[in-house]
Amino acid sequence: MRLIDRYLLRELLIPLGYCLGGFLVFWISFDLFKSLNDFQRYNMQAGDIVHYYLLTAPELLVLLLPVALLLGLLYALTNHARHHELTAIRAAGVSLWRLSVPYLGTGLVFALVLFWLNESLVPDGTERAEQILLRRQTGQTQTPAKDWTRNLVFENELDQRHWQIGYYHVAAAVMRRPQIDCMNPDGSHRRIFAEGALWENGTWVLTNVEEVVYPAHTNLVLPPTHSATLVLSNLPETPELIASEIKISHLNSVKAVRQAQLSIRDLRHYLRLHPNWMSNGGTSC
What we know:
This protein is of the alpha+beta class. The protein folds into 2 domains: about 5-135, no CATH class; about 145-275, no CATH class. The chain has helices spanning about 5-40, 45-80, 85-90, 95-135, 240-250, 255-260, 265-275; strands at about 150-155, 160-170, 175-185, 190-200, 205-215, 225-230. It has a 6-stranded antiparallel beta sheet, with helices on one face.
């Protein structure tokens, strides 16, 4: 990196840091005074409050980083122009494009940071912040309410597989009383009842299983079979995909969809289960 690049970056990053830090301090102070009564009602301690703002900060940074970068760049260029530094640099034979390289590089780095924040931290930040609010409430200390989903129903349209789960623990990937209906490529129908299921080594392991098979093109029903365990391998319904399905299924209004923070990964997982534009070929379970 040339000396001129280091100089231009330093003159840009210093006001940028001041702008970004000032925005963060102002927002946190304002929100703290506004939410102080709520924090007291939820019995939050100082460490909980710090953790809460650490989880909500990425969503704010997505909004503030472009504004702070713009203000920092305007300040840096104005300061250079005031002291005729831009004229001196151009007179030394540095082209306008070469002069813009540090600024373009900074913009590219910030774009990648914003993309990473949107994909990794922002989508789950709000829900995790709500866990901080609830974890000191009675009955919420050990098991946050969001970890358990009751009467979960979802369908894998591509593979023609329908799931009904009595209780599903999101964090531990544990099912209670799951029922799986499968349409196999040969036209047969398979229904699986289980007492529980656990995600182990990339597969669903069902316990206390009862299976009923309905052959294709007939009304006959084969006698049910029972087994202590049943391993369902090569199924695309991973815990990560199910979590994305749960998140999107809760968006039952246009307003909720607009306010939701969804990553590209969540949308891809949802389209994997609901590919209305794809033909039904599927795999058997």
